[in-house]
Amino acid sequence: MMSHGKLRDDKNCLNCGHTVEERFCPHCGQENIQPKQPFYYLFTHFIEDFTHYDGQFWKTIKYLLFRPGKLTKEYLAGKRQFYVAPVKLYIFISFITFFLPSLFSSSEEHENKELYTVNTTEKEKANKEKIAKILDSINKENKTMLVKPEVIQDLKVAEVNGNNIELDALEETKDGKLSILGARNMKQFDSLYSKNTNKQSVFNFMRPIAKKVFHLQEQGLNKEQIFDKFSETVVHTLPKALFIYLPVFAFFLWIFHNKKKWWFFDNGIFTLHYFSFLLLGILILIFSSKVISLLPDYTIFNVLSTIIYTGAIGYMLIYFFIAHHRVYENSRSISVIKGISLFIINSFALLCMLLLLIYTSFRMMH
Question: Which InterPro entries match (predicted)?
């Protein structure tokens, strides 16, 4: 790509020192222009680079979305000049998929904080009234009985937050908050832990989640708001999880195909393109979800959103089988058998990673 920078009079390349007869160095390819340019050159150079990248980018995106396996076959055949490189494509789409939800969440943060403040104030008033009634009834019914302060405190929490304690993993209380294994706070959680000696492994597993949930509830968040934050955390973490899973996916492909014909590198290229497609699909779903959330709550829009989500997820599943058949060029029956086997194995492996992701996402919420 040629820029509009002023050519140097000297014919020696500033980069490698070789003689430059024309505009570009025949040895390293650097353009022989003045190293110092006007400030506006930074912007014009960016536009020129983007325009050059743009031509590759949109052609690559078109093939990635609507021509399963096309990019992989072209790349492995050596036709690489007209498309964005697989690694660069994956990094770019992954960055956008990670960055876009952050924009949406930051724009809603101020509104959520105001809502949390209002909800917290109202709940505090209601709780104070309930606590006053509870203490009044305790004083009347237990005039001759000495009640320890910590017992009264537990009664406050248990009575205000809802029903009797039961060992359910996650349960909603009457005021819209969450209880963890029947506990409404860490004090109750530790008390139940000491009493349920046969379930201490469950309590140990749930302890980080309980700390996080109770901390968020102390800040005024209810169940819906906590789950919203959890969903945002999962979306932010998903690109990282997919990146970690890339070599695992490529390894399973390598196992199922001819090692002499298909190197691990070839399977890696297929994996990069397929995961780029998945991330792009997730990005489209995120954007569609935000757009649909702005529409009125009419039946036609709800039906439309269901059709979009179902169609997108279905296409993501079918896409793999089509791309796999076109790239590896097995017979249709063999391709289907291998595709189903790979789908089952990767679904199980991804499910394990997803469960780990859910657990870590709860711990990472803030």
Answer: DUF3667 (IPR022134)
Structure tokens at 6: 């002023």
Residue recorded with tokens 């055949």: 77
The tokens of 315 are what?
């296409």
For residues 354 and 243, membership in a common domain is answered with: yes
Pseudo-torsion of CA 143, 147, 149, 155, nearest 10°?
Answer: -90
Q: Are residues 316 and 266 in the same domain?
A: yes
Q: How many CB atoms lie within 10 A of CB 45?
A: 15
Residues 284, 168, single domain; the answer is no
The CATH number that applies at residue 6 is 2.20.28
Token match 């203490």: residue?
A: 135
Would you state the pLDDT for residue 49?
A: 62
Q: Count how many residues are written for the chain.
A: 366
Q: Which two tokens stand for residue 90?
A: 């994956």
> What is the model's pLDDT at position 50?
54
- Cα-to-chain-centroid distance, residue 28: 40
- Cα 90–94–100 angle (5° rounding)? 150
Q: Do 91 and 234 reside in the same domain of the chain?
A: yes
Domain containing 339 equals 70-102+225-364
Q: CA geometry: angle at 261 spanning 259 and 267, to 5°?
A: 70
- The answer on 146 and 28 residing in a single domain is no
- Which of 223, 244, 271 lies at the terminal end of a domain, its last residue? 223
User: How many domains, in total, are found in the chain?
Assistant: 3
Residue 61 domain flag:
no
Helix (H, G, I), strand (E, B) or coil at 222: coil
pLDDT of res. 68: 96
CA distance 52 to 86: 17
Nearest to 237 by CA among 106, 346, 94: 94
Look at the block and give the residue holding tokens 């029947």: 182
Whether residue 278 contacts residue 249, with contact meaning beta carbons closer than 8 Å, is answered with no
Residue 129 and residue 84 share a domain:
no
Residues 247 and 194 in one domain: no
- Alpha helices (H) in the chain, listed in sequence order: 41-66, 70-76, 86-141, 149-161, 186-195, 200-218, 223-256, 264-293, 299-328, 332-364
Residue pLDDT, tens place only, 323-333: 999 999 999 99
Whether 63 is covered by a domain: the verdict is: no
